[in-house]
Amino acid sequence: GIQVEQSPPDLILQEGANSTLRCNFSDSVNNLQWFHQNPWGQLINLFYIPSGTKQNGRLSATTVATERYSLLYISSSQTTDSGVYFCAVTMNRDDKIIFGKGTRLHILP
Amino acid sequence: DAGVTQSPTHLIKTRGQQVTLRCSPKSGHDTVSWYQQALGQGPQFIFQYYEEEERQRGNFPDRFSGHQFPNYSSELNVNALLLGDSALYLCASSLGRLETQYFGPGTRLLVL
After folding, report:
1. Would you tell me which of A2, A43, A52, B80 could form a disulfide with A27, CB atoms 3.0–4.6 Å apart?
2. How far is B100 from chain A (nearest CA, A)?
3. What CATH fold (topology level) applies to the domain A4-108?
């Protein structure tokens, strides 16, 4: 089946640093979303980005569907950015939704 | 505008029992998807309901079943609970099957 791989699995950064999270997928997809899961388990939608580039404040995302990857950029990290970041894709061939295993981000004060 | 709500927030059951979890979608949304998230893992897609019918299903046994009501709210039923069913169960709603998903806070199920 389709593979969704996220890297790195873990990332520890000092407050103020920038980071790039990557999501690779092995098949063509209808859409791609990035989520942030806070320590209480709540999943917050960050971007709906099947292709192209979007920006929202300190966060931006780029999806290159033809090369089957997406990147999430976080600039000037804050401690509240800590948590797990997931990408989720919806497969073209059967509309099933597949999540990656996530990147666990720790921002140190 | 209320977001996605789920009930109960926590639940403890014993092996072999049955459980029903409930989800109310975000106002205006017509599609509900259910996910199981084990500790330290990403959410696993269980199934999706649209127009009161199951439209897509992940790799879960028939012990997992669901329902969507005319007001778009949904239930997830799990029969014959196993220890391995202990997880966070997440509901997400969207306007249409392929659109942006909004998640509820989840129900934490512990099976003893």
Report:
1. A2
2. 6
3. Immunoglobulin-like (2.60.40)
